[in-house]
Amino acid sequence: QVRLTESGGGLVQAGDSLRLSCSISGRSFSSVAMAWFRQAPGKEREFVASSSWSGTRKHYTTSVKGRFAISIDKAKNTVHLEMNNLKAEDTALYYCAAEFNAGDDYVSRIRPGYDYWGQGTQVTVSS
After folding, report:
1. pLDDT tier at 15 (50, 70, 90 boundaries)?
2. Which of 96, 97, 108, 121 would be a feasible disulfide site paired with 114, CB 3.0-4.6 Å?
């Protein structure tokens, strides 16, 4: 059974940094595209960042470009989201998502592009 387990969320002040992690367990694979989405109260779940397994294709939503960085640790089957200069509007429940065996360069910015999801980790930024 595939499991995606997020960690690293918390309560921080504006301008602080956090590092989210999402580890994969329960299945073997030749490639996995990973992404982070977030959902604020009363809003739709939105795309934040994504990376191909090869790491050569990465995408970010406009509001986080230059502040967030996604990376995949292949040795640990873990994806990280480094978040710097956090803002109050970054407050949300952050979900990681995965798509297995779609190719080393597969990456998507939309929810249907991923079949597996974690339970979410809360990020709260106080202004």
Report:
1. very high
2. 97
Quick: pLDDT tens for 17-54: 999 999 999 999 999 999 999 999 999 999 999 999 99
Q: Tokens for 83?
A: 């978040």
Q: Which two three-digit tokens encode residue 12?
A: 């921080």
Closest C-alpha to 20, from 75, 88, 73: 73
Rounded Cα–Cα distance for residues 19 and 43 (Å):
23
Name the nearest CA neighbour of 36 among 85, 87, 78. Answer: 78
pLDDT band at 57 (very low <50, low <70, confident <90, very high): very high
Closest listed residue to residue 36, CA positions, set 54, 53, 48: 48
CB atoms within 10 A of CB 49: 24
Q: Whole-angstrom Cα distance, residue 66 to residue 103?
A: 27
- Compute the chain's Rg from CA coordinates: 14
Selection from 18, 20, 80, 21 nearest residue 51 by Cα: 80
